[in-house]
Amino acid sequence: MISVFLREQKRYTQEDLVKEFHCSEEKTVRILKRLKEYGVLKAVKANDTQKDLTDLLDEDIEIADVEVGENEYLYVFTFVGVITIEGRVLKCYPKYLLDATTPKAELKRVLKVLEKYNSKEQIIRMYNDTSDSSAFNMLAVMLFLLQDYFEYGAYTNTQDIIESNGSGDILWDKTINETFTLLSNNRPYYPVLLTMKRVNDDFDFFKRLHECILTRCTEELRDADLLDLFDIMGVDISDEHIEDFGDKEYVLERIAKELNAQFNTRKQLLLKSPENTCRIGALKKCYPGAKFINIYRNPYTVVMSTINMFTKEMGLFCLNEPASHQVIEDVTIDLFERIYKKAFRELDAMPPEDYIDIKYEDFCKDPEGYVKQIYDHLGIDGFEEAKPYFDAYLESQKNYQKNKFELTPELRDKINAKLGFYFEHYGYEMQK
Question: How far apart are CA 214 and CA 233, in angstroms?
């Protein structure tokens, strides 16, 4: 990547930026157009007055398209941070650094302040892949991959190695069926015990691919002089090249299969979102190996809780007068009806081993027991390793108090009229 420093609010000609970007006029124009689309670049009239200004006023901004070779406008960056676009890294430093040309230390301090206040927009998501319209946050991904590596290490898969009289667990079924037995005093003795141990596979495809990508990220960031800027160490752990792993389609196919087959919880994505109740089919299509935990609850309680949430939040997001409580009730019940009719259809079409229904009221009485049931039913390993964390969390929540709501006769009748199918499906008693 080509890496350059640019000053906020400084006036640049198109010719200046051709030199800074180290590319043709045509490519520079394409970059400038995209920067304008993302709101980090403005155009002003090219005159001596503008050249001397250090601030940009709204009345100075020109609404104009960028054309090759035009000298009518000057270009102004209205942004402090890092921009990645079409193989260029634009490091925009504050306007008050008038005399600096490569203010790495100053920009580093600025980025630390922005990170402290969680301003993610300071890394603009622009990476041109195969078309002008594609956008991908390549810089953010590279930084994430390196930070993830320092926290968790390289991706690993294991191999099960079977040995004779090894140090692993004894495979009794295999030993009995495949080795010879000595009898003494009518008791069997097995001179050869087949054992199994699990070791990391250093030649695993994905471990090698991960290490190769980490090394490539390091090279890219080092070339762009960004490792020190973001205060992150590089990783040089692979001599392989991306091309060594096959073409793009083959690698993507291998990754898709690995995602569907991987049950290491470190490598799994866990989504807890009530909104996904209406996306079960879509999620299953996108992730064929996905498993679902459907926690259901008394509909009276769910509806009242949702109404309470909508009532509290609506005022925060409405530009006009929030909807009446009556409208919120009707919308909530209608939404609940449509979501669960769709969810029931999609769950019915799913293999039973891919999802589990858990009654909320039962779960609260024995949370650890039901979590164990979830692990067993969905074929997830590692419950015993995770159990201490469950115990600690449950201890921290022992004084938790649930919200209490009063069910009015009017709301009860509305729920009964719309959600009878839900009561019947899960065996809840309908109030009269």
Answer: 11
